[in-house]
Amino acid sequence: MTDFSRWGLTPFGPAPNARHMEWYRRGRTAFLHFTVNTFTDREWGDGTESPADFAPTALDCRQWAKVLKDAGFTAAILTAKHHDGFCLWHTKTTEHSVKNSPCGVDVVQEFTDACHEYGLKAGIYLSPWDRNHPSWGREEYNDVYAAQLTELMTRYGPIYECWWDGAGSTEAHYDWDRWTAIVRKCQPQCVIFGCLGAAEFVDVRWVGTEEGRAGRDCWATIDPETIVVENCADLNSGKWGGSHFIPAETNTSIRPGWFWHENQNDRVRSPENLVKYWFESAGRNTAILLNLPPDRRGLIHESDTESVRRWSELLSEIFGEDLAPRGTVTADSPLHPDLGPENLLLEDDERFYAAQSLTPTITLTFPEAVTFDCWQLEEVIELGHRVRRFAVEVCADGQWHTLARGECIGFRRCERTEPVTASAVRVRILEAGAAPVLRRIRLFNTHGLGQEDRQTAHFGELPITVTREDGAVLAALEGIYPYNTVQFQSTCPVTILAFNGTRYEQIWQGSQSPARFEPITGSYRLKLLGDVTPDSVRVLYT
After folding, report:
1. Tens of pLDDT along 336-352?
2. What percentage of the chain reaches a pLDDT higher than 90?
3. Is 505 within 8 Å of 527 (Cβ atoms)?
4. Residue 410 has what pLDDT?
5. What one-character DSSP code corresponds to residue 263?
6. Measured between alpha carbons, how far is 501 from 522 in angstroms, rounded to an integer?
7. Mind giving me the DSSP string for 146-195?
8. 62-78 pLDDT tens trace
9. C-alpha–C-alpha distance, residues 247 and 245, integer Å
10. What is the rounded CA–CA span in Å between residue 101 and residue 73?
11. Where are the domains of the chain?
């Protein structure tokens, strides 16, 4: 990491460590959900599955790696063990493992070998929840999990991310201190993703939704207590002045489900929808984690492959030429002659602009007007979140106009706008906690590439589980997606409530089906009060 002390620069508030910076610069990471669920056509297995269920006909982890490499991914995370407890490696801790399957192959070994061959960084998902192991929920399970974690962290070479989710965490006492120590000792470069009880130890956090959208202003700083309660709103935006540097990872699936299902082959996100995902994740100071689940052959399906291939092409075209270097840049007095505004136009992470004042103005002047529809700002995040509010302005027809306002910049802030032709562009820092330090300003004319056709952006019906409990009908969504319609049959008025991470909030009341409301994000549970039966509820999303 850069030695900023030579210029007297020190972090403002919580700042990233070396693991965070590797994670930020990693770019696109793939998620690979693959286990017995792939063959039983379920999302969550209950642990009663047989190892015989795991029977890929053409398992080829090199195909996974090639697909990912060709699509611009730099890392991948495999579900070495999901909640069903089935282990994809030859573990000594249980017989519920791939070693007793018709496949017999150590999939983790095949996966990590393929990653190393194709230059991808390997990560591991190891669910703390184990619905198969008889000791789960008892103290002795901590020993079992520690042994599994040790196997995975010592057998397969460098591991760059360890992924812990929160499912089942409220029902057991986990030894997070011990488990974290194993990761830190065996894989010191490894980023830990986690939530709930692991909040004290994690490097990166959940973004609070599985739809693939971070908050427009998404701070890397947050209070760990927020992670513990899974307050979706706060997870999605972070907190200016939060006590810890725990940036968000924006995870979503290319399909409605996390595991491969044959009936979803024609419901794969379009390349244009994935471009939208990029802008709402990587463009908002978070990192991408996109799930591409292998199918029953043990291959990434052709539909998924083609979508991410074209997505990668679109991103290359969108960001093909940076227009900012066509101009001349000026700014308020820099902190040091080596830290002038001209550095903002360079492709060099070691060069940057550091201001003396809290509210500098940076101006790009062009000899000939430029047309653009996308702007990007980068803060030297190694020095913490310093910028609190900013504005992007353009000079068109001799008049200055505000193009955009925002709060968080962070590692990267990138937004699309309506096309504008300007003779000058300026960035005004309106408020800062410390003198701003910026790495880069970029402008692009995307010519509308990758813009989503909203008429074809519908993915269909959400996968849900509907039950009756305590006089209410409960709908549990198997992924968190934006939705705006609930269909039902009822003979009386119905009240619909959505769970926001901490409590239920009413979103609709009436008697006419379907119920329509503003798109809901971040909720994974609905409650319907009224004369409704579980078999009469459908949830639709856009």
Report:
1. 999 999 999 999 999 99
2. 75
3. no
4. 98
5. G
6. 8
7. HHHHHHHHHHSS---EEE---TTGGGS---HHHHHHHHHHH-TTPEEE--
8. 999 999 999 999 999 99
9. 6
10. 30
11. 17-318, 324-444, 458-541
* Three-point CA angle 491, 494, 500, nearest 5°: 155
CATH assignment of 17-318, among 3.20.20.70, 3.20.20.80, 3.40.50.720, 3.40.640.10: 3.20.20.80
Q: In angstroms, rounded to a whole number, what is the distance separating the alpha carbons of residues 539 and 526?
A: 10
**Token code pair at residue 476:** 């549990």
Distance (Å, rounded) from C-alpha 367 to C-alpha 388? 31
What pTM value is reported for the model?
A: 0.85
| Single-letter residue type at 69 | K
Domains 17-318 and 458-541 share a fold: no
Beta strand pairing call for 287-291 and 399-406: unpaired
* CATH number assigned to the domain covering 458-541: 2.60.120.260
The per-residue pLDDT for range 186-201, each reduced to its tens digit, is 999 999 999 888 888 9
* 422 φ/ψ sector (left φ>0, alpha ψ -120 to 50, else beta): beta
Q: Which numeric CATH code is attached to 324-444?
A: 2.60.120.260
Distance, in Å, from the CA atom of 305 to the CA atom of 315, rounded to the nearest integer, reads 16
pLDDT over 80 at 11, yes or no: yes
What's the CA gap between 233 and 215, in Å, rounded? 8
CB 385 within 8 A of CB 12: yes
